[in-house]
Structure prediction request, 210 residues.
Amino acid sequence: MAEVNTDGGGGGKHEKKRAKKSSTRIDMTPMVDLAFLLLTFFVLTSTFSKPKAMEINFPADPKDEKENIKVNNALTFIMSGDNSIYYYAGEFYSEGNEKGMPPTALIKTDFSSEGLHKLLLERNKPTDDAIKKLTEQLKSKEIVDTTYKRLVNREKGLKEALTVLIKADDKAVYKNIIDVVDELNICNIGKYAIVDLGAKEGELLKAINK
Prediction:
């Protein structure tokens, strides 16, 4: 509220009249109350940003160091220097292995849309198609959000769904590993893990990079 105080001019009959002076006082209490009410409203109704975290799976150490990691429908990516990325499918077999299997050959790819992205989409096509169908059902409101998330997680966790193992030598950079994990999420791959590079894999990689 604003108040205006006025003081009279001259006092006597023959005294010269003085101009009236006015003083203004503004009461700021209502404005302060309104500011605190608005502040309280925005604090209670705002959604605070949640910290973004990347979920990475680390498998348990095998009981036997010589034991190979056996997974169904697996791709193994090996990161190296100069942004190099190699991969192979299935289990790794070294030269002259006990099972008599042909030695594993490393295939080089890159981070382009025709490289890693295309490879993952092709190998994960059944799961990706199933998730796209669920997404359409969500958009058409045939299923609710909670059901959608549950069904998507189920599709990603199926036994026949693609599993990806990520390995790196001492020349690889951290950024490349993060880029691979991002690409896995984009391609709807739910089963992946970062594991140590095997000795035989390291020897094969060194032979290629000579």
User: Anything to note?
Assistant: The helical segments are 29-45, 113-123, 125-139, 145-156, 174-186, 199-208.
